[in-house]
Amino acid sequence: MTSAFDDKTLDRRRFLLTLLGGGTVAALGGIAAVRLLGGGNGGRAMAAATPAAVNSSQILLLECFSDDDGHHLGPCDVRKLVLSDAQWHQRLSDAAFNVMRRAGTEMAFSGPHEKPNSKGLYRCAGCDTALFNAATQFDSGTGWPSFWQPIAKKNVIENRDTAYGMVRTAVSCAGCDSHLGHVFDDGPPPTGLRYCMNSVAMRFVAFRVS
């Protein structure tokens, strides 16, 4: 009877454990740790979208969704996109860079996503993380695309924003820390929230299957 693990597998696990440093494995949680150590992805591939060097502490467990019909594919391991300003400038337009990397705001009614008109989902313009389903979009009349909830809470990050003498809640992409907009408590049911986003920070993907 042969061993369940050959020498190459053991060497790989020793290398990854050394790289992760024990505490990082615990911080990532059991599922992510198993996936990193070769315990199976459950059919989901790990995203590696960045040309920049990424260390093991930047492995994220986000929620993934299909472009075909928005079907929830479950949790997936994603490497956080970490780029220099020069690399971000290459990836983004000037307007998107100002919003996403400098926490700017586009002019109201200037973006293409202000009013919902088709089924689909919105992905981060920087790293492609799924952010919002168009089914949760509504016409807020503000001039910015608005949603009553994100497609998955773990795919966005919310932080207190006290800039310009106001107290607001800023929303950024969990996959690359890019600024997306703000969330307010004047939205419609069922959440009563209004995620007020910048069009240039997102790209719309129309469902291929109705």
Task: Describe this structure as you would to a colleague.
- It catalyses: L-methionyl-[protein] + [thioredoxin]-disulfide + H2O = L-methionyl-(R)-S-oxide-[protein] + [thioredoxin]-dithiol.
- It comes from Dyella humi.
- With 210 residues, this protein is an alpha+beta fold.
- Helices cover 20% and strands 26% of the residues.
- It has helices at 7-20, 23-28, 30-36, 85-91, 94-102; strands spanning 59-65, 72-79, 120-124, 130-133, 137-138, 146-147, 156-161, 168-173, 179-184, 194-197, 202-206.
List keywords for this structure.
single chain, 210 residues, alpha+beta, six-stranded antiparallel beta sheet, three-stranded antiparallel beta sheet, 11 strands, globular, disordered N terminus, membrane
List the helices and strands and how they pair.
Layout: H1 7-20, H2 23-28, H3 30-36, E1 59-65, E2 72-79, H4 85-91, H5 94-102, E3 120-124, E4 130-133, E5 137-138, E6 146-147, E7 156-161, E8 168-173, E9 179-184, E10 194-197, E11 202-206
Antiparallel strand pairs: 1-2, 3-4, 3-11, 5-6, 6-10, 7-8, 8-9, 9-10
